[in-house]
Amino acid sequence: MTSVQPVRGTQSLLGEEADRLAAIATAFDRVRRIFGFKRVEVPTIEQTSVFARTIGETTDVVSKEMYSFEDRGGESITLRPEFTAGICRAYLSEGWQQYAPLKLAAHGSAFRYERPQKGRFREFRQLDAEIIGAAEPQADVELLGLGYQLLRELGIADGVTLELNTLGDPETRDNWRRALVDYFQAHRGELSDDSNSRLERNPLRILDSKDHRDKAVCENAPTVDDYLTAEAADFFRAVTAGVDAAGVPWKRNPRLVRGLDYYRHTAFEFVTDRLGAQGTVIAGGRYDGLVEALGGPHTPAVGWAAGVERLAMMIEAPAPEAPSVAVVPLGERAEAEAQKIVAGLRREGIATDMAYRGNLKKRLSRANAAGAAYALIIGDDELDRGEAQLKDLASGEQRSVSLDLLSEAIKQ
RNA sequence: GCGAUCGUAGCUCAGCUGGUUAGAGCAUCGGUUUGUGGUACCGAGGGUCGGGGGUUCAAGUCCCCUCGAUCGCCCCA
Description:
Blueprint: H1 16-34, E1 38-39, E2 45-47, H2 48-55, H3 60-64, E3 67-70, E4 76-79, H4 84-93, E5 102-111, E6 123-132, H5 137-153, E7 161-166, H6 170-186, H7 193-201, H8 212-218, H9 230-245, E8 251-252, E9 264-271, E10 280-286, H10 290-293, E11 301-307, H11 308-314, E12 325-329, H12 332-347, E13 352-354, H13 360-369, E14 374-378, H14 380-385, E15 387-392, E16 398-402, H15 406-411
The structure holds one RNA strand.
């Protein structure tokens, strides 16, 4: 066993595994352009208060999962546990308000001190999409359409279901929450221990508990629909009508809630049963109160985040990268000449490798293992004639090609 | 933070109820006459059996602790 170990919950990926993550980011970038979302880059670190004020002091994310430290200047800094708060901070501190409404897309690593398991890591990657400064239900619809098209581009839309719910406006939410607390108080004895503690911190979360006792109690719990104000009901109707019109399949899940405090109105998750316990692949909702929590003006906003590793587990393996040609020089003179040839081919845009170790047998073997389409064998005899042997590694056919016509021979 | 399972060469694993120098496949390196791979054959290197302690005449194999991994709970993307 080696003495150096990776930090728990981090990943070091090679080849296909790394290609999978890249494929997700590439697809997201393509779709985000089609939908007119601007790319944003935001810092990996923020002042701790940015997350503490927005996500909610009592949430597990803030109270026990953040990577926070004091920097050398004595400031409390936190590695971002998600993107939304940092983007909203930038929206305020960078003067992005002048561009509102803003459609933004970002992706990168986020950090949470959690117990690693399938599809869950301490350093994990997210795609993030936000629309800031738009109170219209059309914004929610556009965002859901973005998520759906991403899944389609990735070829996994069939295995994923959009679950949609509303948490209502603040009035709705408060009334519903109060009714839920009353109801669960009355059934305290039937709830699991976890849910009893949730009753103090985050009663809405009891609704999506996995415990069978909790599920039984939730069967008859009050639903949001009973407390929706007329405005909140209209808003949700407009969202579902828009999603239907956009051709995005969905289903209502009246027990779907959000873990973070800042959500209002629309809440949604794209979920799959193919990934075990971590089945949520994209999740988000409307967070009209967040910018205010950071000290800004009242600013309506919607957004979602997607788990890159989870998406990466679901997609087909991307085609492996292989050179078009592997140059195989024989002898010192040929090796020097080969550098010129390799450089020339690469300038032409042809993916080129050079096999420079071992005898011819080894070099060809390496060329083959690398997946090269052709091997270009260059020995003294060939050089004297201004030629090289171009070998098709799939068919085994080999022919002489003039060094002046190499790229043409390889491209065809 | 809680629970279950697991931890043997670079990788995937075998090692039966504890018993002489710990094995295989793949990978790596070398060779099968010195310029032809993908398909053969021969050979080599590589492991203090995660770490520490204990039981025993004897432990990879049993017990305890610890670290790590996996899957689930919690939380959440």
